Amino acid sequence: MLSTSVLAVAACFLVATFFRQALSSPLNKLPGPWYARYTSLPLKWHEFSAQRTRYVHSLHLKYGSAVRIAPNEAAFASASAVKEIYCSGGSGYDKTEFYDLFKVYGRRTMFTTLNKEEHAKRKRMMADRYANTNVVREPSLTGISERAARFMQKCRESTDGVVDLFICKLLVSHTHDLISTEQNPDLHSYAFDCVTHHLFHPYGADSLQNVKDEDIMREIAFDDSLQNRILDYYNPILHKVLGKLLYFFAKPRETPLADDFVLGSSAAADPAPFTLLDRLNGQKLEHLDIAAECLDHMAAGIDTTGDGLCFLMWELSQPSSAGYQQRLRGELLANTGAAFDKLPFLDAIVMEGLRCFPPIPMSLPRYVPRGGRNIDGFFLPEGTIVSSQAYSVHRIDETVFPDPGTFRPERWLEQEGDAERRRLFFAFANGGRGCIGKHLALAEMKMLLRAVYSSFETVPDATTTPQDMEMSDQLISSRPQGQKCLLRFDPAQ
Ligand code: HEM
């Protein structure tokens, strides 16, 4: 009897404490749905069902650029908030434990270091390898153009057929019969070959021509571990308890071929001088740390560039973009001798593609530092999780991006508002922890688009629907929901 009363009193105390905290939180001043004061379950549910980005965006549309999304979490979509969260003091606020999910070989890499001092130390070791000057010179550039040429060769072989840009080993005729199980010119293979060239040359991969290498790429690119990893993040104990049982409902991330490939390639003592491996070999790092760093960059460079290109080429293939293809081809053919980064319309196409379809569209979570901070007029106590997501940053301010849902590359050619547009461009994030591979990614994208649209016109194949191309969130990147993207490549007239 006594123990029941004690339990009842304890329960009342807990409930009272819960409501007292919820009702007195400084975050209550932020706009947002009423339930975000009390629970993070709706947010977690949307994460679990691969819809976090759209959910957060719907809250921005309803409540504005600052919104509370959970009891201890707020999202922002303004340029001033992005500057404060990601750029203050150089590299912005520290990352949250969400990034623990990306540890490789049990090691922390530059991407997964949480505090900025450790991050800066690691970044200094390798930043020069990703500087534009190192990317746009030989033999780095030749490596990319050779791989673009291989991709084109594959496209030529399937000229009167249909190419699935998203998935390999599918080559179909106009009647959609499978005509070959030969490798398809998949964009992930292209991105994989390019990034491993930059990491390991001459020990990079050749998945556009070699089926074994393609299998390695598939392990990284076609990963279905979202739910498993989210459970691990939010409830590691439950994740452990469920153990193998979980395997039947939510696959874990398993990449044995990729692990072996990187352990082997990163053990080479004589990589080319422009590579990341060459730079890391000269540092005081254990082999496993070097391998982890390389594996991390390899994974970071496949889905992002591959899916970014995939969404962009799909959009360019729509009837509404026929004029853009024509204008792009005009620019390319009139400037065959020009450097790939001196073509304004090609640049505008890539910028608009990354604005409309940012390969990492979702929140990049950070902790508010000691003492708390004011963001866009709201005080946030220390330890609050804050973030911005490219998908919303690229859409919410219609004075900067009018008609934000429409693919309109020419907006990047207008003088007026140029600085504001670039300030709100968040596809590669911003500040010291923004994408180190940005110049490499842009070179890969532009060189591939130049190769394709100098020779081909692309149109969508009827087997891929707009719904297939809806954005589906993964742990940090997004991919087409239907996991396919079939285009027809016709020789350009
Ligand atoms: C279009 C292609 C790409 C996009 C849109 C992209 C986007 C991003 C974004 C948004 C971040 C910040 C993530 C965060 O804060 O959580 C990031 C970081 C990073 N990216 Fe990329 N990325 C691309 C291609 C690449 C490539 C080709 C590499 C190859 C090396 C790469 C390597 C990295 C690394 C190592 C980081 C961590 C940087 C750090 O912590 O300092 N990315 N990327």
UniProtKB/TrEMBL annotation:
Task: List the Gene Ontology MF annotations in alphabetical order.
Answer: heme binding; iron ion binding; monooxygenase activity; oxidoreductase activity, acting on paired donors, with incorporation or reduction of molecular oxygen
Q: Which domain of life is it from?
A: Eukaryota
**Secretion signal, residue range per the UniProt entry:** 1-24
What Pfam family is a match, any one? Answer: p450
**Record bears the keyword Membrane:** no
Q: Where does heme bind?
A: C435
What protein name does the entry list?
Cytochrome P450 3A13
Supply the alphabetized keyword list.
Heme, Iron, Metal-binding, Signal
List required co-factors.
heme
